[in-house]
Amino acid sequence: MRTSSIILAATTLTSTIVSSLAIDKRSHHAWPEAIRSYYVAAAERLASLPTSTLASLTPSSCNIASPTMPSISGLPPVTPGLSLYHVAIGRGTQNYTCDIAHPATSPVAVGASATLYNTTCLACIAPIALQTIPSSALLMPTPEENKVLFPAQAYTSGHHYFSDLTTPTFNLHTSKTNFGIQFSKLLSKVPVPDSMQQLGQDQAKAVPWLKLTSANAPEGLASDGSPVKEIYRVNTAGGSAPKTCDAMPATFEVQYAAEYWFWG
């Protein structure tokens, strides 16, 4: 399972090599800064790799034990003994409701919906490039189903949604890969400090970083034996609701993107 994840991700990373190296040299190129930062970081990392590696990225090029997950003060570390299973970029919406009869009240979070894109190999080979993707992804329209995520050219590895109001769910089944279905529950939440903010559309602040742990399947649903025990949402961009419901509809969505790290 992990090997197929790495092979697919390595193939994806290979497809960015030529464009990354070229765009890095085109100082006049008019990409938005966040997108340009991705290509620059990818180009610098890829330029440091041996020619043999560039010619044929293999599972051995993507040492899944090597990546270091971004951290933030207050978020509990990964439980000792767990290993990295999968890394994905989530691109979608945080969902909210408002009591429009009381505009001074705060919006209420009612879950999220996002497509997950496989960036496991990118996390292994070019982690600095990976960190630029959430803010870059929000500059582009949400990809159509089964389309790659720009600028990483990452393929879909699944979907994130809520099975009920308290159960974040990660369905990592696609026509190409199957990494299981993970039901989870919130363990810890840490607000993003101002120094690390990545604003989204309409200047929405970044949603908190999270640590989730595995949970039983909600009534009527079944687990498929996924090995994942802990999931982290880190390096978030956008997604936060306004402070009050003033001028907001009864239900609304806020665009967001984030890195998701799965450990099992």
Structure description:
- The chain has 264 residues and is α+β, with helices and mostly antiparallel strands.
- The chain has helices at residues 2-14, 17-25, 33-47, 51-55, 120-125, 127-137, and strands at 84-97, 108-118, 156-162, 168-173, 178-190, 209-214, 230-238, 251-263.
- It has an 8-stranded antiparallel barrel.
- α2 (17-25) crosses α3 and α3 runs antiparallel to α6.
- The protein starts with a helix and ends with a strand.
Quick structural gist:
The protein is of the alpha+beta class and 264 residues long. Helix content is 22%, strand content 30%.
Write the layout of secondary structure elements.
Layout: H1 2-14, H2 17-25, H3 33-47, H4 51-55, E1 84-97, E2 108-118, H5 120-125, H6 127-137, E3 156-162, E4 168-173, E5 178-190, E6 209-214, E7 230-238, E8 251-263
Antiparallel strand pairs: 1-2, 1-8, 2-3, 3-4, 4-5, 5-6, 6-7, 7-8
Helix pairs in contact: 2-3, 3-6
Sequence stretches where pLDDT stays below 50 over 5 or more residues:
1-28, 51-60
Strand content: 25-35%
What is the 3D shape? globular
Average pLDDT figure: 83
How many strand units? Answer: 8
Helical fraction: 10-25%
Rg result: 18 Å
Spatial arrangement of strands, main beta sheet: 1-2-3-4-5-6-7-8
State the end-to-end distance. Answer: 13 Å
SSE pattern: HHHHEEHHEEEEEE
The description of the largest β-sheet is: 8 strands, antiparallel, barrel
Structural class: alpha+beta
Determine the number of helices (DSSP H or I, runs of at least 4 residues): 6
Sum up the structure in keywords.
about 260 residues, alpha+beta, eight-stranded antiparallel β-barrel
